[in-house]
Amino acid sequence: MFSPLGKSPLSVVKGQKHIKPSPYFSPSLRKSLNISLSRNSPFGRSFSNSVLEDANSHLIECYGSTLPVLVTEAITIADNDIKISCQDSGIHCKELTLPPSDLAHKAELVHLFQTEESRLPSALAVSPEGHVRYWPNINHEGSSVDAQPHLQGQECCSLSSIYPLGCILATTSSSLIIITPTIGDGQPNVICRTLTLPQGVLAGIGRKVSSFIFGVIPAQTTETKQLNRVLSAQTDDGDYFLYVLSNSCVQKWHIAKKDKKENYDQLLFEVDLDRELKQIYTEELFSNDTNAVPGLKTWCLDMQLYQSGVMILTACTIPVSPGGNVHYGFGFLDTSSIEQAQTFSSFNMTTHTKLICQFAYIYNSEKVLCIPIVSPQIDYNTLDFSSTGNAVLGSGSCEGMPLFFTRDYGIISFLPSQKAIGDSKLLASMKDVSIRKPDVISDPRWCESVPSGSVSSSLLISYQLEDKQNFHECLLVFLKTFHLFEKLTTVKMSDFRIPTKVLLCEHAEKLVAAKSIRLFLTEHGEIIETAVRETLERRDIEVKNHLTPQDVFFREVSAFHTVFPSLIELEKDHLNSDESLEKTLSAVMTMNKIFVGLLEAINEYRQNRLETYDLKDVPVNYMPWTSRDGHSGIRPFIRNQLDINVTYALNLTDNIQIQGVLFQQYVEILDFFLNSYEKQMQSLKKSERNVILAKEYALERQTFLRPLISVRQYERAGCYC
Questions:
Q1: What is the rounded average pLDDT of the residues 38-63?
Q2: Own/partner long-range contacts of 58-62 (Cβ < 8 Å, ≥24 apart)
Q3: Closest residue by Cα to residue 296 from 274, 265, 312, 271
Q4: Judging by DSSP bridges, how do beta strands 490-493 and 496-499 pair with one another?
Q5: What is the distance between the alpha carbons of residues 276 and 298, in angstroms, rounded to a whole number?
Q6: Pick from 175, 179, 96: which is nearest to 132 by CA?
């Protein structure tokens, strides 16, 4: 199927089930942009030869079988302004009558698919005005049914598959409609449902309350957002994530199957990248000259699925500058976390001195630019189709292979040569390891070089921990970019082995815990300082020169767990010093507060990053540091804190307010403690160790629930029955 050229961008193949690395495409480079191109490679070879071009960096071949005669005839007799929409469901050739329209039809508004119930292909077409037509079987044109969603005069832009939930119809002003073809009692039907933001009684209470209940709600604005791209990615359980690029805003939606009980339309987040783009381009092009920012104009041109998020093609220019040159850049937005993505994980400017490595393909009807998405230094390729009268009509991908539909050759494949791939992996690894260089001021060991009183030691440690966390994220990006993460196996910890990805998550959790314990310095600074000092003494680490105990302790965050025995010993010393009942309760409640704060921070990070570390399914031999005994774990110290509560606090006061605080703290620590057993047992289902662990869990559960029952806290105890 084809249509005259419209203003909307060319569609790409939406056939991937998961977000995975693959070349991605953008038709957003237009002939009107003034760009210097390099190394033209005209296509003047015979179609009879499957290899059309064998350049230094790329191999271009004919792809698939010969096109049907009806398709080639349609392309031949059509005028120059035609476009193709490519999909990966195979070729089916049938001439159908599109729904009525006063505007020119678009290839992006036609979708061909095959259901599990039928071996024959079905089709869905939408006119620019929004008239929907559904053919359950394209061999029977008369069986079609029509529908008309309420678009209020909006023009339709694209149709994206979210099979088996239907298709997403997007308008040029960024409205989204789910179109679901159904067959009930043998009769075809089309259900249209608009994705809407939550409104009603909570609309005036405030964005925080609404966000807490419904998810993120974007700021209302009178400005109409121009749609750039809609992408969909299916999850393992059949749900879909939608990514919508409008102007400089990116939205992420969660579309769940209707058989689920929860709300199946949810906006997870919306982020406006305009301010960050201005800052990035100012840094890259104008050396942080703030005077350039007011005149800087930026765009988000296109977006494609890539790795654990989306890659966005951006551009900027200064309208008043001589020549009005347009500068391009690729920004990667990691969307794997349920938290809102605030900034680009990485950003690369495209210049004319780049090495062919991992590629993005930007094209218009005449040329295809092969642009690297990391930053080594050799000219990139430009493939010119116009020199022989050929033209690019559309693009797509199949299992990571970039495909282009050309007027003369039909579908061609376009892949990097082996030399280019080898060079790219070597040099790109160097780049990804050094994404961010640490500022020496953030390491306390350098503070002699800092003017006295200019930066506090506490601030230096905060910067140091932040840098450590940033470098950990860079390591994850590196491992996933080069497909090393899925190859990780296990690592030995004393006398047992754990999955390497669990250890990586453990490092990040300890960083989070280190940052969390510093939040207690203001209110409980003496306790933290004493615990840190005793921890270093126990580890036989000497504090030298100008450094403080905190400087030395937080230098090695992988040993953060060693502070827990010091906290317990400090608490026991206080409890054994014949203090008053009031001071005893205060000591227990203070240590409970610290434990709850640390365990909550650890658990929140772990739950939010399950997908990042591929821990949604509990791996075999799952023994995180919070569940381990011995010198590398903290389970015994969590148990000690529960014992202290039972022995010194729960039965010692009749004050209802103090009891309420104590019981709640106790339950929160107990919940983490028992949950660690449950996760561990899930990973040992078929092991003899699981039987022993189950008995141990039952005993611990009984031991620590009995005190709650004895003080008639049945509701709190009932959560574990």
A1: 51
A2: 58/356, 58/370, 58/381, 58/383, 58/414, 58/415, 58/416, 58/417, 58/420, 59/414, 59/415, 59/416, 59/417, 60/383, 60/412, 60/413, 60/414, 61/412, 61/413, 62/409, 62/410, 62/411, 62/412, 62/413
A3: 274
A4: antiparallel
A5: 10
A6: 179
DSSP string, 683-716: HTTTSHHHHHHHHHHHHHHHHHHHHHHHTT-HHH
Locate tokens 């004050």: which residue?
A: 655
- 498 vs 475: CA distance, rounded Å: 19
> In whole angstroms, how far apart are CA 123 and each of 6, 30, 74, 132, 151?
21, 31, 19, 11, 21
**Average pLDDT of span 286-291:** 65
Band of the pLDDT at 291, cuts 50, 70, 90?
low
E-assigned strand segments in 55-109: 58-62, 82-84
The answer for 422, left when phi > 0, alpha when psi is -120 to 50, beta otherwise, is alpha
Q: How far apart are CA 66 and CA 63, in angstroms?
A: 9
How far apart CA 591 and CA 526 sit, in angstroms, is: 12
Tell me the backbone φ, ψ of residue 661, rounded to 5 degrees: -65, -45
Which residue's entry shows tokens 């009684």?
201
Asked if residue 394 lies in contact with residue 402, where contact means CB atoms within 8 angstroms, the answer is no
Instruction: Decide: 291 and 5 in contact? Cβ < 8 Å.
Output: no
What digits encode the pLDDT tens for the residues 126-185? Answer: 999 999 999 988 888 888 899 988 888 899 998 988 888 889 999 988 889 999 888 777
Q: Is the dihedral of CA 16, 431, 380, 278 positive or negative?
A: positive
Is the model more confident about 599 or about 406?
599
Rounded CA gap, 264 and 259, in Å? 9
Other CB atoms within a 10 A radius of the CB of residue 413 amount to: 19
Distance CA 546, CA 96 (A): 81
Q: Cis (ω within 30 of 0) for the bond into 619?
A: no
Give the span between the Cα atoms of 615 and 182, in whole angstroms.
Answer: 36
**What would the two tokens of residue 309 be?**
């998020």
Handedness of CA 408, 411, 415, 417 (dihedral sign): negative
Distance CA(303)–CA(330), nearest Å, equals: 9
**Is 432 within 8 Å of 488 (Cβ atoms)?**
no
Least confident of 113-117, 300-304, 472-476, 692-696: 113-117
The helix/strand/coil state of 578 is: coil
CB 51 within 8 A of CB 391: no
Quote the CA–CA distance of 343 and 269 in Å, as a whole number. 13
pLDDT at 309 over 70: yes
Instruction: Give exposure, 639-676, as e/b (b: 16+ Cβ within 10 Å).
Output: bbbbebbbebbbeeeeeeebbeebbebbbbbbebbbeb
Local structure of residue 615 (DSSP, 8 states): -
Alpha-carbon distance of 644 to 652, in angstroms, equals 12
Evaluate whether 312 touches 331 at the Cβ level (below 8 Å). yes
Per the DSSP assignment, residues forming a β-bridge with 184 are 187
